[in-house]
Amino acid sequence: MNLNRIKQLRISRAWSQEQLAELSSLSVRTIQRIENGEQASLETLGAIAAAFDIKVAELIAPAEMSENSTPGRALDEQIQAARRQVRSESNFYRGLVTFMIVNVILFVINQVTTPGNHWFFWPLGIWGGLLIFRGLRIFVMRDWLIRLEQARLQKILRK
């Protein structure tokens, strides 16, 4: 992280450390520590970048933009995770639309061919149940599954 860059941006806007702390919802002590050379978390950098209305990458020095850069890599990983989540959600909605269209067609076929026998309930129930589980996994249990996976990884790494 380019510590001088943060200080330069703050001074160029004629902000005190207290003002930057208030605008970024951080403590004054955190701003002081960062300007004195301590490592900042990605969330802290994001808050400071938002206060300056710039991207987090602009707060990172070119020397640290290498492959081994922890904040840069963490940001890339978060972006990739967000893309995967959006892709999962869009695939779910596409599957939901397909489910509805196919089951309406099956209902019509069932009513035209054998109105006394309601066989369309079978694909409706099975496919619907699988779709419900998929939706729960994507929207409800996603954070829980991630935390469970991280806890398991940490447990294995400590052995």
UniProtKB/TrEMBL annotation:
The chain crosses the membrane at residues 92-113, 119-140. Residues 6-59 form the HTH cro/C1-type domain. One of its GO terms (molecular function) is DNA binding. It holds the Pfam family 2TM. Keywords: DNA-binding, Membrane, Transmembrane, Transmembrane helix. The keyword DNA-binding applies. It comes from the Bacteria. The keyword Ribonucleoprotein does not apply. PANTHER family: HTH-TYPE TRANSCRIPTIONAL REGULATOR, METHYLPHOSPHONATE SYNTHASE. This is DNA-binding protein. It comes from Hafnia psychrotolerans.
